[in-house]
Amino acid sequence: MPLTLAANDNGENGENGNNGGPPPSPPPSGATWDEISVAVDAATAGLRAEIDRLNRQLANTGDGIIRLVTPQNITIEPGETREITITVRNVGSRSVQNLFTLPAPGDDAPFTVEFLRNTNSISSLGANSQRTMTMRITANANAEQGNYALNLNHFFRDQIGDTETSTDRINVRIGGEEGEPTLEISGMNAPTATVTPGQTATISFTLQNTGDAEARNVNITATTADVIDPMTQSEISIPVLAA
Q1: DSSP of 61-77, one letter per residue?
Q2: Which of 29, 95, 155, 189 lies at a 20 to 30 A Cα distance from 81?
């Protein structure tokens, strides 16, 4: 929102523009009214220049958005310690400053996580740029086999100094081979009668992840013949589909 300044209208109402009141007091000792007027004009010009600068900065500010690139899944055995390379990317249109990433395992997570060598602290990350971090994860010796959530919370400042946050999630598999997602479509329900021109029909189905790891960035696209127009969206995106 642009910032503006408004000056009072002192006009020429009454003597010396003071609405007919008594004449103004003499200037402070050691100064003239002309000198004070010049100083006020200079200060006003400086304030207007600062406001113009802020308006230009606000107009040119876009979003910086931090997202996890890899890994999506981690497999670890009970009692094991692993060092994992984490890659994050600024997928936004502007750079971010003072990026700091903190691990946040779920309440039931049987493992501990720490970042090494301050690699989770990045002073600046430009738009469409990525960096790596090194994370150490240790599973409890008595950890039960299963899938657990590990959230990564990203804190950073935008170009005007406001603090922004984003969160990503890694699936941690304790025990067994590294899991893979498996997508299956079932319960397809389509009209059995002939669809005549101008008539509408509904097709429904169930999408399920029957694998042992969550599926990410699932995109479903419906393609039809040229003579059929989808009445609803022809593409569906699912960020995370749990196993």
Answers
A1: -----EEEEE-SEEEE-
A2: 155
Q: Three-state DSSP class for 165?
A: strand
Asked if residues 128 and 96 have their Cβ atoms less than 8 Å apart, the reply is: no
176 compared with 63, residue with greater pLDDT: 63
> Which residues, 6 or more positions from 2, have their beta carbon under 8 angstroms from its beta carbon?
55
If one compares 44 and 33, the residue with the highest pLDDT of the two is 44
How far is 203 from 181, CA to CA, in rounded Å?
Answer: 25
pTM of the model: 0.53
Reply yes or no: is the peptide bond before residue 71 cis, omega within 30 of 0. Answer: yes
Other Cβ atoms less than 10 A from the Cβ of 172: the count is: 25
Nearest Cα residue to 109 out of 74, 133, 160? 74
Strand partners, 170: 150
